[in-house]
Specification:
By secondary structure, this protein is an alpha/beta fold. It contains eleven helices and 13 strands. A five-stranded mixed barrel has the order 8-11-9-10-12. A two-stranded antiparallel sheet has the order 2-3. It is globular and about 60 Å long. It catalyses: alpha-D-glucose 1-phosphate + UTP + H(+) = UDP-alpha-D-glucose + diphosphate.
């Protein structure tokens, strides 16, 4: 297989964060769902940390009304920092400053809630014709399983756009975008995507490969999104635009590749999975894990006796 190098490096990420979080009401009535804590950090910080670890230093967050807390979290908190300095609390001071030092943060409002495809489209001016990553805040990827770095590597080698895939039980595939794939000779974890279907009806899915919330996109996607009509749910679906890209020539920025992810992923968009993510991450922490695991064993044991 021939590849064209060097390619324009990927340095920018887009994080859609305009959703209302209705599944977590009433907690999200006045608090953005992205700010719900996962142990002791808001969920959105894990996502920004992932982008930063993959070398993406420029992050655009697509927000909406009542999302000011997101901007405040990634901004300096001078009064709080001064208080911690006076107390000599260097440990907490460092933790407070972590979010500020991750990346150069920018913000734009989506306006009308027209779907993920529309949220991505409002980033066009900021992206400025470069390939870019998209990270959805409901998916937390364990930092020990660097998915995004692998996706960027594939995009730099093959061009086009790259989606993250995870094999799921066929009974669950209707909850996701689904990809039809074929081998492309680039590695056991890399495929060419030949078709995409958003939340297929039971029995109609082309595979058990679900598209999860990580993308590395060619800027050609903006041209396609402008022509993409509302799809499932009356929204402009990113999946529909990517499906169109599978029909474009590679030389024109077309083709879509998939990276199969077999690592640890935490879904914070579902209440039960959100709780499981907190338990798993807390149990693995060096500072919290030993005591928490001991309590958890006792709790589970007592529940089983009951």
């Amino acid at each position: 297989m021939t590849t064209t190098n060097p390619r324009v490096p990927v340095t920018k990420a887009v994080v859609p964060a305009a959703g209302l979080g209705t599944r977590f009401l009433p907690a999200t009535k006045a608090t953005p769902k992205e700010m719900l804590p996962v142990v002791d950090k808001p969920a959105i910080q894990y996502v920004v940390e992932e982008a930063s670890a993959a070398g993406l230093s420029d992050i655009l967050m697509v927000t909406g009304r009542n999302k000011r807390a997101l901007e405040d979290h990634f901004d300096r908190a001078y009064e709080l920092e001064e208080l911690l300095v006076r107390k000599g609390d260097e440990q907490r001071l460092a933790r407070v400053r972590e979010s500020v030092e991750l990346a150069n943060m920018h913000y734009v409002r989506q306006g009308d809630p027209k779907g993920l495809g529309h949220a991505v489209s409002v980033a066009e001016q900021h992206v400025a014709g470069q390939p870019f990553a998209v990270l959805l805040g409901d998916d937390l990827i364990d930092p020990r399983d660097p998915l995004l770095s692998r996706m960027i590597e594939v995009q730099q080698q093959l061009g086009g756009s790259v989606v993250a895939l995870m094999e799921v039980d066929p009974s669950q595939i209707h909850l996701y975008g689904c990809a039809a794939v074929k081998a492309n000779g680039f590695g056991e974890d890399v495929f060419q995507v030949t078709d995409l279907v958003e939340k297929p009806e039971p029995g109609e899915a082309p595979s058990s490969y679900a598209v999860i919330g990580r993308y590395v996109l060619d800027p050609l996607v903006f041209d396609v999104l402008r022509e993409t009509p509302p799809g499932r749910g009356g929204e402009i679906q990113l999946t529909d635009a990517l499906r169109e890209l599978t029909n474009r020539e590679a030389a024109d920025g077309g083709q879509v590749h998939g990276v199969l992810f077999k690592g640890r992923r935490y879904d914070t968009g579902d209440r039960a999975d959100y709780l499981r993510a907190i338990v798993r991450l807390a149990a693995e922490r060096e500072d919290l894990g030993p005591e928490f695991r001991s309590w958890l064993r006792e709790f589970v044991g007592s529940e089983m006796q009951d």
